[in-house]
């Protein structure tokens, strides 16, 4: 809990320093449709709480990244990867990490300024999103 508090505090301080604007995320139906439309990740919205965390909320772009990181951990939880051999699990997790720019692009497609801010901070690379 203490670590979560410091993470949130750091994010809020970083957003103030970066002079970043709050963005309003789309509704649950829109986010779900976008995530379901991603190839090889059609179950991401149903296996994580990302839609309920973001839908209709006001967030800084770093808050969206934080929610995505938490969802990725949830998605790759042992219960979701049950029965996979260890090398397959590792490849699956690496593949998901490589798809992170694509997911961010889908989540923030209404907010190009947020994607630009994340790019400036080194947290989003649009060329990686095109490769995935």
Helix/strand layout:
Blueprint: H1 2-17, E1 23-24, H2 28-36, H3 44-47, H4 50-54, E2 58-59, H5 61-75, H6 86-98, H7 100-107, H8 112-120, H9 126-131
Question: Mind explaining what this structure looks like?
Answer:
The protein is mostly helical. It has one domain (21-131). Helix content is 64%, strand content 3%. The chain has 9 helices and 2 strands. It has helices at residues 2-17, 28-36, 44-47, 50-54, 61-75, 86-98, 100-107, 112-120, 126-131, and strands spanning 23-24, 58-59. Strands 1-2 form a two-stranded antiparallel sheet. It is globular, with a radius of gyration of 15 Å.
Summarize this entry quickly:
The protein is mainly alpha-helical.
Number of domains: 1
Report the uncertain regions. none
Largest sheet: spatial strand order: 1-2
Overall mean pLDDT stands at 86
Question: Main sheet?
Answer: 2 strands, antiparallel
Radius of gyration: 15 Å
SS content category: mainly alpha
Helix-strand sequence: HEHHHEHHHHH
The number of helices is 9
Question: Beta-strand level of the residues, as a percent range?
Answer: under 5%
